[in-house]
Design goal:
elongated, leucine-rich repeat, LRR_dom_sf, Leucine-rich repeat, LRR (right-handed beta-alpha superhelix), 4 helices, 11% helix, binds 2-acetamido-2-deoxy-beta-D-glucopyranose, alpha/beta, single chain, transmembrane receptor protein serine/threonine kinase activity, signal, five-stranded parallel beta sheet
């Protein structure tokens, strides 16, 4: 063990330990080289936005708009390091590939959502092993999500929605077991939902809507027992809804609409008693409405239209006192609306929708 590393271990608790040891590992990268990397990136942008006018050669990057720093212990010194880049909605036009990530090893937060970032999400981003938040939604990113993203072992939030990413969702994402929120809505990713996603047992939010994902829902998603929100809508997913999802007892929102799911509305859904919103519309769902749905007493939206659901509406749905939206049109429902539903005071406008 080198003496500097020893000192570093002696003096630093917790997070500073992590960051400080990075300093050692990366040969004590100076604030100067971090500034250089940021200024180089600014120089590659097409007309740098106003927010970046404080990004100047002679000043500390820690004083720049959108940059935050932290002092970390490094041996006997306490150098400042750049930890945050936060410039959402800033009109930044440029490429992330021009940002020298190996010069910024202390980054914990990157939030550049709602800009004009184009080009690929570079594999070099994988050097940011302290990165905990990566928020890049509403940009113009293209290409694949790099396999190397599986090395961002500290990542808790990954938000890549509303870009133009293609290719498969890399199975290496399954290594990011600290993730609590994974959002890749509205892109052009295709192929299967990797079963490795089922290893992300800390996930609260999993949103993979509006792309061209296909195949079945992997059974492993039943291991994500902390999930509150699961969005898979707007894809080409097919097959039955796997009964393993009955283990997601904290689920509040389940959005499976606008896919090719077949088979009946599964009875296990009655297990998900925290459910507020259940979207199954625009699928190939058959069979009748299970009376067990009447036990989802927190339900306020039950959206089942455009399927091939048959049979009658079970009177048990009269127990759904919170229900304010219930749609069933374009199905093969027979019989009358049960009188029990007439007592649902919250149910607005959906009479015609039925
Ligand atoms: C940041 O700017 C202020 C003045 O605006 C200056 O006093 C301070 O020394 C600067 N800090 C660093 C770290 O450069
Ligand atoms: C970095 O940004 C996050 C999220 O906005 C914030 O919680 C954190 O305190 C910031 N870090 C520093 C060193 O300012
Ligand atoms: C990126 O930064 C590292 C560390 O400062 C440096 O060694 C390397 O030469 C830089 N790469 C480029 C392309 O500037
Ligand atoms: C991540 O997971 C893949 C398989 O899912 C594995 O092959 C790889 O070695 C893991 N490690 C990293 C750092 O990506
Ligand atoms: C998904 O697509 C629909 C229809 O184009 C759109 O209204 C919705 O905002 C999108 N939502 C997400 C989360 O991608
Ligand atoms: C997750 O789910 C699958 C299938 O349901 C199961 O085989 C596996 O053992 C589960 N546990 C873990 C930790 O992946
Ligand atoms: C219902 O939830 C419990 C946990 O509360 C779980 O043990 C059980 O397997 C679930 N049943 C189904 C059918 O998924
Ligand atoms: C729900 O409604 C049905 C018929 O309206 C009733 O028999 C039943 O006891 C109610 N309660 C539950 C928890 O399903």
């Amino acid at each position: 063990m080198r003496p500097t590393l020893y000192l570093c271990l002696m003096l630093m608790p917790c997070l500073p330990l992590l960051l400080g040891c990075h300093a050692v590992r990366h040969g004590g990268i100076s604030l100067g080289s971090q500034r250089m990397a940021l200024l180089h990136w600014k120089a590659t942008l097409a007309s740098p936005p106003l927010q970046m006018s404080s990004w100047q050669e002679k000043t500390s990057p820690c004083n720049w708009t959108g940059i935050m720093c932290m002092a970390v212990r490094h041996g006997r010194r306490m150098p400042w390091v750049v930890t945050n880049i936060s410039l959402p909605d800033a009109g930044i036009r440029g490429q992330l590939g021009e940002l020298n990530f190996s010069a910024l090893p202390f980054l914990t937060h990157i939030d550049l959502h709602n800009n004009n970032l184009h080009g690929a999400l570079p594999a070099s981003i994988s050097s940011l092993t302290a990165l905990s938040v990566l928020v890049l939604h509403h940009n113009q990113l293209i290409g694949k999500i790099p396999y190397e993203i599986g090395s961002l072992e500290s990542l808790r939030l990954l938000e890549l929605s509303f870009n133009r990413l293609t290719g498969h969702i890399p199975p290496s994402l399954g290594n990011l077991t600290m993730l609590t929120d994974l959002l890749i809505n509205q892109n052009m990713v295709s192929g299967l939902v990797p079963e490795e996603i089922g290893r992300l047992v800390n996930l609260h939010t999993l949103q993979l809507s509006n792309s061209t994902l296909s195949g079945m829902i992997p059974k492993t998603l039943g291991n994500l027992t902390r999930l509150n929100i699961l969005y898979l809508f707007g894809n080409q997913l097919s097959g039955p809804i796997p009964q393993e999802l009955g283990r997601l007892v904290r689920l509040k929102v389940l959005g499976l609409n606008s896919n090719d799911f077949s088979g009946p509305i599964p009875i296990f859904i009655a297990n998900l008693t925290k459910m507020n919103q259940l979207f199954l519309y625009d699928n190939q769902i058959t069979g009748s409405i299970p009376p067990e749905l009447g036990s989802l007493t927190m339900l306020n939206q039950l959206v089942l239209h455009e399927n091939q659901i048959s049979g009658t509406i079970p009177p048990e749905l009269g127990n759904l006192t919170m229900l304010d939206t219930f749609t069933l049109f374009t199905n093969q429902i027979s019989g009358l609306i049960p009188i029990e539903l007439g007592t649902l005071m919250n149910l607005r406008e959906s009479r015609e929708d039925l």
